[in-house]
Write a structure and sequence with these properties.
Structural class: alpha/beta
Radius of gyration: 17 Å
Shape: globular
Oligomer: single chain
Distance between the termini: 13 Å
Number of strands: 7
Strand content: 15-25%
Helix content: 25-40%
Length: 197
């Protein structure tokens, strides 16, 4: 019998990525939107705090174990911004990208280093005192213009040195093998697999 885990996000791109990565596991990932779960107030000061807030909120409203992630992009020339504010940097994916490119206007290529961070949290129930926490990091650079049609978020301006292209030009499978979320989720899968055997 497969287990149900609620995913604490309303982001369709994240939902698809996480479901793809869980495809070989006997777990049914359901979106919190299927339960009309209100969005958590993300007032933490770190990716870890925000991920825990989202997981607790989803578990409390659904009665299911919850999985959440908090992720964002850190740009060295901007002192780590937009960081935990990545999703809300300017309002939506397109305006977030345009603001980031404006902020980096005139910054030379060698100073455009950046990384995606992902912290993933699993809670057995809303009051779980020992959340499982995993983290993944994906190093790259910020391009000077949008490149590619795939992915979501900042993918079209995130240059992937290992592939010589933007994250938006990768196949879904290739992105999952390299990405911050893929790394954090594989660690989480290892934990969940061992804890349920």
């Amino acid at each position: 019998m497969n287990r149900r885990i609620v995913l604490a996000t309303g982001n369709a791109g994240k939902l698809k990525e996480i479901r793809d990565l869980f495809s070989g596991v006997d777990v049914d990932i359901v979106a919190q939107s299927e339960f009309a779960t209100p969005e958590a107030i993300e007032d933490g000061l770190s990716f870890v705090e925000n991920a825990i807030l989202k997981a607790r909120n989803a578990a409390a409203h659904t009665g299911l174990p919850a999985l959440s992630d908090d992720s964002g992009i850190e740009v060295d020339a901007l002192n780590g911004e937009p960081g935990i504010h990545s999703a809300r940097y300017a309002g939506n994916d397109e305006s977030n990208i345009q603001r980031l490119l404006r902020e980096l206007d005139g910054v030379p290529e060698d100073r455009r280093t950046a990384r995606f961070q992902c912290v993933m949290v699993y809670l057995r129930h809303a009051k779980d005192p020992v959340p499982v926490i995993t983290q993944g990091v994906w190093e790259g650079k910020i391009l000077e213009a949008v490149q590619g049609e795939g992915g979501f978020g900042y993918d079209p301006v995130f240059y992937v040195p290992e592939r010589g292209c933007s994250a938006a030009e990768l196949s879904a499978a290739d992105k999952n093998s390299l990405s911050h979320r893929g790394k954090a989720l594989r660690q989480m899968l290892n934990h969940l697999s061992s804890s349920y055997t």
